[in-house]
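Regression check, tryptophanyl-5'AMP case 324:
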Amino acid sequence: MRQRVFSGMQPTGIVHLGNLMGALTNWAAMQDDHDCIYCVVDLHAITAPFEPEEMRAARTDLAKAIMAVGVDPDRSLLYRQADVPEHVELMWLLGVDATMGPLGRMTQYKEKSDKAGERFGLFAYPLLQAADILIHRVHAVPVGDDQTQHLELTRDIAERFNNRYGETFPIPDRITPPVGARVSSLQDPTAKMSKSDPNPHAMVGVFEDPDAIMKKFKRAVTDSGSEVRYDWDEKPGISNLLEIFSFFDGRSIDDLVAEYGDQMYGHLKVAVGEAVVEGLRPIRERYEALADDEVEEILSSHAARAREMAQSTIEDVKQAMGLA
Ligand code: TYM
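Current build output:
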């Protein structure tokens, strides 16, 4: 039997190289041998400040980007979270028993509530994420490294439910890529590339203009010294560039170090920028060829199918809990 996979991405800001390398590329690759379900998680995105009109556009636009990267709606389900209210229903059924301690200790909660204040949406966020994954009873979740804590919590919640009410959920595995699970900021290689970074030079968008991309790589912050070496402790800036290079160019990091090892940082930066621009070109072309109403139609028919699947999980959960 083919294993089932789920993952989600928030429709906020732009889709960047971290999203592409850490998650979306695996989303597309896993379609070959898994049943895949992918979701634009708009109900998560509203935990940050937003404008309704921008949200309306962003939730369709992100679906378009996901398809442009290679998620094929003939093979996979792709829908928007708010169209399938069972996610929220399951969040309550699972979350009612969650303890406050672990939720308050989530890194994302601590970081975001430091800036935005202690909001219920930020606090409950990982419970909704657990429900997203468990509602489809999946075996695997392709994500970047930064989702590790949320995945651990999901596994705990599933185990606890199974122990209390009987085998209901598979315990899902986290799937991360060998290269690109944690792409760093181009301005501070010790920080991850993030949509919420106020410095526009820190992040490279998948649909960004090629000239702008080249500029960002040329001014990427690198390390002291002059040796091109793959070493995250001593040379995080160069190591990040090498991972990006390897991802887009297809050669191994060892091969790239052999070729660029004694060249100047500047040469490496230009070569990485060129590989990225070249690699993003077909994604941009597919994105431009997709019509909004075509995407809209796919999203609503897939949401209907996802709802049917989700309702059957809710039925089982309610049966198990004595609510049906
Ligand atoms: P989000 O929208 O922030 O990011 C989407 C995906 O991109 C990955 N990612 C990165 N990978 C490598 N390097 C980076 N710098 C980088 N930045 C982001 C993320 O790991 C993620 O896989 N909480 C999730 C959304 C979510 C979800 C889910 C994911 C909601 N429900 C259920 C999986 C399953 C998030 O904020 O992703």
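Comparison notes: The mean pLDDT is 97. Residues 6-10, 18-19, 21-23, 41, 44, 129, 132-133, 141, 143-144, 146-147, 150, 181-183, 192-193 surround tryptophanyl-5'AMP (CB under 6 Å). No diff flagged against the previous build.
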